[in-house]
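Researcher: Quick sanity check before group meeting.
Model: Go ahead. Protein one:
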Amino acid sequence: MKLLSLAVLAALLAAPPARAADASGHQSFSWVDKNGERHYGDAVPPEYAQSERRVLNNEGVEVQHVGAEKNAQQLAEQRKHDQEVEAKAQHDSFLTSTYTSTKDIERLRDERLDQLNGQITAANAYIDSLDARLKTLQDRAMHFKPYNTKPDARRMPDDLAEELVRTSNEARTQRKSLDRRHQEVATVRSQFDADISRYRELSANSAAR
């Protein structure tokens, strides 16, 4: 028995530990070439140094996974994606912490739309007054050149010409502003509808949990 024990001990001492190769730091790599074929070797070829690869230990077991390095466009897209995810999470937090029900969101939506519709009503009234003013100026301008083609027609006074241009430009500017307000109404309605839908989804998920 003593001789047998000594023999077993000697065999154990002579055999290298299972992780001795790992401790030596020896590694191999696995990578995929441009044709989609996987390769193994002691070093990754330079042309695949930026590609996805795996680090293997002496026994062929994966010990590390290195993702492919992204180019500038991919990094920009990743940053944009991360920002969108973060913004969505922040908005979800805002919805759940600000409102107690969808009625709160609907009430705020209606208040905002009423405000915009009031601005639209005022803008329409102002545009009507500008149109009336412009019509009066145009009627006056018909008595002067170049609108009046009579040989004895006088040249249009400078102040009348300036007022025509000024009123016409103001009416054009106000119409563009009115168009923006109408677009804002559509945008506000769409945003609030999306918030109501998302709030319902978050509330349902919370209730399910």
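Researcher: Fine. The other one?
Model: Protein two, sequence then structure:
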Amino acid sequence: MSIAQHLEQLYTRIPPHVSLVAVSKFQPVSLIREAYTAGQRVFGENRSREMSEKIPLLPRDVQWHFIGHLQTNKVREVVGKAVLIQSADRVSVLKAIQLQAQKLGIVQDVLLQVYIAGEDTKQGFLPEELTSVAGLSLPNVRVCGVMGMATFTEDLQRVRKEFRGLRELFETLKKGPYAGSEAFRHCSMGMSGDYHIALEEGSTMVRIGSAIFPPRPQRP
């Protein structure tokens, strides 16, 4: 199947109120352009330099999401370029985003990445930390919701439980410290292998790569 056919299939499976982020990391501009021609406008990158190199080579109406682990010394390469930073996973990163956004005179949208998986390779805030995070003074940072990655496992019930927990946390935050915030509306969860479960558990945004693009070798 072509990229366009893969996208058409996904568009029929994903409800209209759910955003599809096409994960384009490691993919060449030519294939991203194919997805763009097929109607896709939101793309996710996980390396700041790669995203910066791709931005001027693609149409200006592409919406870039940064979805990878963000080092504080790379924040300046992402703020103001990504419409949404999905991987704000610790206080030091939030403060660095605030500083850079203030320098640029903008408000940067972010999601709070939450640690929901039982794997050391995953990052994120612990659920019990998020109330205090909401109390931080970050006038140039707009928190738009939460993001999480489930455990990489064949135990689908475990995956479902982790997604359900994130959705419940999202609803608690929405009624609590973020009550009244129109921006706080995203619960980003679900990737190529588990997005169908994430949708059933209330995801508002899925991040899909291998179900759209052909496999690419991982860069070092």
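Researcher: One line on it for the slide.
Model: Residues 3-208 form a domain with the TIM Barrel fold (CATH 3.20.20.10).
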